[in-house]
Design a protein that fits this description.
single chain; alpha+beta; 16 helices
């Protein structure tokens, strides 16, 4: 992250201090940095350089690009369309980089390549981190849009194995390969058909804490949101409250709140998204009465369900059913 600054002969010491870190993090490869401190350093470097890509590319990524990237992906029909929008945007603002999505019957591949070399040496720290960061950015954004972790089956990186290659199994995928011609991240193709579950109103909370927050989200060891969603999915009519959910997951309410906040969501947002998904599925695929659907989803009154559904879709449940299924 600091390699762009060092190439410009800028002293990172003040920014390290601001993030609560000492110079030992640069001198001893065995030192580990708390995620919150890493995110704070991320934001400090971006602010200092006025470049959300740390001075790693041929052109700076101007402040606000991350927010625009998030807002531009909202409203896509599915995850594939959202990633294609994100790729088009990044191709415009990072002219030296080519990003595209390839889809086949069983696999989807996110490909990140150089239009012109970022650095002369394949293992230059600036080049290595540029590819690492781009994948982390796009993967984190995709996970947030889908409101769930998205496992990568394999990632091939276009540089020799770095000294920290052993950490890739935690950060990216257990199957990480090196020495490829371009970065290729492979996913189950079915994931690309997932709906985008975020709305414009969700973006403000997501970007709070600056672009550095992306590094705190949807790591392979952080799946609190998915655990809460699975817990609630068993029975929304008798769904546990927040404190009961924390007990069921064997964590304190404070810890659960913090983990969900770090993953860019909340107990309330997860419950609302689950209700919306189930409501849409039952209206479109069953002939259940609207009042029965409302009760199954935990609404005490059908009118409360009507108001919530109108807020999600802009139309009444009965209108949505007629439009999508032709059902009375």
């Amino acid at each position: 992250m600091l390699s762009g600054m060092r190439a410009r002969r800028l002293d990172p010491a003040p920014l390290l201090r601001e993030a609560g870190l000492g110079r030992d993090v640069l001198e001893d490869a065995r030192v580990r940095v708390p995620v919150a401190s890493y995110a704070a350093l991320y934001n400090a470097v971006v602010r200092h350089l006025g470049d959300e890509a740390f001075g790693l590319f041929h052109a700076p990524l101007r402040t606000g690009a991350f927010e625009f990237l998030c807002r531009g992906a909202i409203g896509s029909a599915d995850l594939a369309a959202a990633l294609e929008r994100a790729a088009r945007f990044l191709r415009l603002v990072l002219p030296g980089i080519e990003i595209h999505l390839e889809r086949e019957a069983r696999q989807a591949r996110l490909v990140i390549a150089e239009r012109r070399p970022l650095q002369r040496r394949a293992n230059d720290p600036r080049r290595v981190f540029a590819f690492e960061w781009l994948l982390r950015l796009l993967h984190g954004l995709a996970c947030w849009l889908a409101a769930r972790p998205l496992p990568m089956e394999e990632v091939r990186f276009p540089f020799p194995a770095p000294a920290h290659a052993a950490d890739y199994a935690l950060i990216y995928a257990e199957r990480s390969r090196f020495g490829a011609d371009a970065l290729v991240a492979t996913f189950d193709a079915a994931l690309m058909a997932l709906p985008v579950r975020r709305e414009a109103s969700d973006v403000d909370a997501f970007i709070e804490g600056g672009p550095g927050k992306i590094v705190m989200l949807y790591r392979r060891d952080r799946e609190a949101a998915r655990a809460v969603r699975e817990l609630l999915a068993h029975s929304l009519a008798a769904a546990p409250g927040f404190d009961a959910a924390a007990r069921a997951l064997n964590v304190s309410p404070r810890t659960l709140h913090r983990r969900l906040r770090e993953e860019g969501t909340s107990f309330r947002a997860i419950k609302a998204a689950l209700r919306r998904d189930l409501a849409l599925a039952r209206l479109e695929k069953t002939r259940e009465r609207v009042a029965d659907i409302a009760a199954e989803l935990g609404y005490s009154e059908p009118s409360a369900f009507f108001r919530a559904f109108h807020g999600w879709t802009g139309e009444a449940p009965t209108v949505h059913r007629r439009r999508t299924r032709g059902m009375a």
